[in-house]
Specification:
about 375 residues; mainly alpha; A middle domain of Talin 1; two-stranded antiparallel sheet; 13 helices; globular; NaCa_Exmemb; potassium:proton antiporter activity
Length: about 375
């Protein structure tokens, strides 16, 4: 009697993006009731988790440091889509949404993802080491972008309020693109070794995934396609869910600016999970590349995209940070520099960054 061969089962990572797209098609343009809100939220979480998986498959295929760019750019696509759609429907109340979201993304990446990665790595090895040349270059780029796009609008005088003039916004957008492009060239072509892990003696090591069998080209292309589907579903479902998010924030008495924090937490969930997984697998350099690369992409790509969107968006675009936000940014700068310069860290540095994130979240709720 012959044996029966069972067909391969579809994995949840294949089903989730497609199912999320179906939920998006069925819910688009409808007024979601409580049940539909829950269904959309579940599909949204599934699409985010699936996006993490497929981005990691593609990243494994192309190798580091190219792989870290895949998820960073993908997350930025989600962020821009959410900000623009909410600004279109939010009117003047959404004038500061881009600032709130981008600043929240910077704090989450430079304190949350970075701190979590350091803590997870140090819990396994007490002291973790990383490539300080690459981390320092990435941090310098992030800080320059943050000051140029989020701090200077508070002090310019061409427009009243924390707002750039058209010429200033154009310059900031172009400068952001130049800085991001220069960093990508540095990371992937000119000084690729700066973004690879180092040994305790400081020697650059090969990519951690180099000795593992990479996925086939077919598997990588399939994951790339499903990643695109998942990202489309995330943007669309988040748009469907956005009224519930705004109503929920208002119902619990949080400031309207907290909507930007919710968006940032949502779009950075894939990065956070991917960085945490990498840190647990002793790939701390990948975690740092993800954290700082995401912060850079969040400013360097989002601000130019929003600048282009202002051509048809009505109302002001408030980008300048308030005094409390600037203090938090300044402390983050000092702490991040002290973390990166030595090229090694302990649990303490991880906890310090996580406490800074907690302080940001608390002050976002109770300013």
């Amino acid at each position: 009697m012959g044996t029966t061969t069972r067909p391969p089962r579809l994995s949840w990572t294949t089903v989730a993006p497609v199912l999320a797209l179906v939920v998006l098609a069925l819910s688009w343009g409808r007024d979601p009731g409580p049940v539909l809100v829950v269904v959309v939220a579940a599909a949204l979480v599934g699409a985010v988790l699936a996006a993490v998986h497929h981005a990691e498959v593609v990243a494994h295929r192309v190798g580091e440091p190219f792989g870290s760019l895949v998820l960073a750019v993908a997350v930025t696509v989600i962020e821009v889509g959410l900000i623009v759609t909410l600004m279109v429907s939010g009117g003047d109340e959404a004038a500061s949404l881009a600032r709130d979201t981008v600043f929240a993304a910077v704090m989450i990446t430079c304190n949350g993802i970075l701190g979590l990665s350091l803590l997870l790595g140090a819990l396994r090895h007490d002291v973790v080491e990383f490539n300080r040349e690459g981390a320092g270059a990435a941090l310098a780029t992030v800080l320059t972008l943050a000051v140029m796009c989020l701090v200077l609008p508070t002090f310019t005088t061409s427009r009243p309020g924390p707002e750039f003039s058209t010429a200033q916004l154009t310059f900031a957008a172009l400068a952001s693109l130049v800085l991001y492009a220069a960093f990508v060239v540095t990371q992937t072509i000119r000084h690729r070794d700066f973004f690879l892990p180092v040994s305790p003696g400081g020697a650059v090591l090969e990519d951690e995934d180099a000795h593992a069998d990479p996925p086939s080209s077919r598997a990588a292309l399939t994951s790339l396609g499903l990643l695109v589907v998942a990202l489309v579903a995330v943007v669309g479902l988040a748009k469907v869910e956005s009224p519930a998010i705004e109503d929920g924030v208002a119902a619990i008495g949080f400031p309207q600016s907290f909507v930007g924090v919710v968006i940032a937490l949502l779009v950075l969930a894939p990065e956070t999970l991917a960085a945490a997984n990498a840190a647990r697998r002793d790939r701390l350099q990948t975690s740092l590349n993800l954290a700082l690369g995401s912060a850079m992409a969040s400013i360097g790509l989002t601000i130019p995209a929003i600048a282009v969107a202002t051509i048809w968006l009505e109302g002001p675009l408030l980008l300048g940070l308030g005094s409390t936000q600037m203090v938090l940014l300044a402390v983050t700068v000092v702490v991040a520099v002290l973390t990166v310069v030595p090229g090694r860290a302990t649990r303490l540095q991880g906890v310090v960054h996580l406490v800074l994130l907690a302080g940001f979240l608390f002050l976002a709720v109770a300013p």
